[in-house]
Amino acid sequence: MVNPETPTLPVIREEESLLDGIRTRLIENPEAPGASESETVKQLLTLRDELRGAKAEDRASLYQQVDQLNAVLEQLRNGRKTEEVDPDSPYFAHLRVEESGRSRDVFLGRATRLGRGLRIVDWRNAPISRIFYRYQEGEEYAEEIAGRIREGCITVRRTLHIQQGELLRVGSQAQSWVKNNGTWVALSDEQSRLSGGEGSALRSGRVDSRLGSGQKLRASKHLPDIAALIDPEQFELITASESGVVVLRGSAGSGKTTVALHRIAYLNFNKPRRFAARRILVIVWGRAMKDYVSHVLPALGVSGVNVTTWTSWARTAVKRHFPVLPSAIADDTPEPVTRIKLHPAVSQLLTAIIKRTPGKATMEQAIDDWANLLTDGAALSRALGDDIGEGALERAIRWSSDQVRAVTAWIEGDRDVDAQLDVEDDALLLRAWQLRVGALRAGRSGSLSYAHIVLDEVQDFSPVEVQVLLETTDKHRSVTLAGDTRQHISRAAGFTDWTSFLDRIGVESQALSTLEVSYRSTHPITRFALEVLEDDSEPPPRTIRTGPPVEMFRFSDHGAAVAFLSEALRAVTLNEPLANIALLTPTPSLSATYAAGLEDAEVPDVRRVVDQKFAFAPGIDVVEADQVKGLEFDYVIIIEASAIHWPDTDHHRRLMHVAATRAVHQLWLTSVGTPSSILPTSIR
Length: 684
Fold this sequence. Notes:
The protein is built from 21 helices and 23 strands. Helix 2 (37-53) packs antiparallel against helix 3 (56-77). Residues 1-7, 189-208 and 214-221 have low confidence and may be disordered.
């Protein structure tokens, strides 16, 4: 309960009273299984009759109900059963609007329920949600909805967390409150704005450099629904045109993936036949993000989406289209070969070769096109120019020529030959098929045709890989590309800058949208991550909160570092049992050393992460820094930030930037050797 003297009492009492009344009506009036189209039509007809005799001041409200019922009717006629409102968690936001002197309460949730005193609407569909996301409490609005301009004022705009029928959090622009152990407590402005992934801590109090510093009140278990936290800029991108390419540029923690996944939910909800889950493809950078996204989409109401990595998707496609090729993949491909096969100019050269070379539209001819591309040294030299040295080109041509001879022998039946492909060949082979034969196939059922594709971390894909994917969309070419040049860590992917990249894949630069606010990391962490970069031309992100300074600790040997970290980690896991912490190392051997050392020191919940098999649970993950892109942790400790492991190269600067921006609240670094010169001088 709340102290009777607190001024927050009226707000909390009002929301608890509203929740009690709504839950009672939901429980006493359960929805009939599969609410029928005819019932919805009846309600529309009733409203039509009411409109004929309604007063002018009442018509706006009636028109709003008509809009909402028309949306529900469209869902029913599209063959999709509308979701039911859960009485134990019926909504996540409360909006009160005043139009023409009439006040109305609307509640936003994940399903719609109208009538019998209920006005709960789905955030993905209801026109009123546009007002919620675009305006703040006290602001006047003017929006065109269903062909009419609606004008009014928002008198209440609150986010809520309701669990098992109990109100646990109320948030407004002015103040937020959380219920802990039966007592309502007002949160500071800093606490009200903090949010993150599972285990994300909320902080208050003084700032110091202890790991876990600032912890006074832990309220993460009552975070508001992520859909309630979407800002106006993100909402505009989520609800952007259903056709065409949307390119999301944003710094780490700016919500690129959140926007992309909520956009899938929005498209699928509004056009369930066109954007059926089975016709949506999500390509992510690694296994960890695949596991994460595969769990998030069902929680957003979309199950059955194909979430995979490029390597997995492309391998499957190559085996389907080129069954005569060997399935073995080389694990010792020379760097010049990788660089050439992913180079943007090589994709353009492939197009030119196929245009000028007569041939049948067959698998065999596509293989010949691939072979001709990789063995024509003169053409490759002209195409690559100064981007590759003569010696490196010669080594690459020898490798590719030997590879083509072995593959040819394999196709002719020689099973004694060591025939292997490089992983980079998949994109070139599939592109050769598209240019020579036509659309990729979806098994025996016809052409592959996705209604929507999301490609996350696009900066680490080569143009030819992206081109292959773009050509698998239907005529509407509905695609979401999300990326950040600062997080470009794939050395040979061929990404240089947004303008050149979009030009190479045939996308208008007007499709590029920038998310300017970084919500994940604190200002000290973000400042450190930006200082690590060199010649950074991207606009700096805006951060919304401060935090402890970034700290560097030096040790004489790794044993001393393990002893120091053991004490700090035991303390933070004791004080914050729900926190997730990452120790990011430069090599697998150091990961093994530190994981074993912490376990021997009896630090609880230590996990040595291999092959990106993250638990996504409280505890301590020990893993290499190049395995965590796209993820976030409450605390990050970068192990052995020394010159030998982090030399001054563009790649290592961007990798350090990625590692640092995984931290939500606090960042530490350790070093046994000489600290890397890429680190800001202020912490070396």
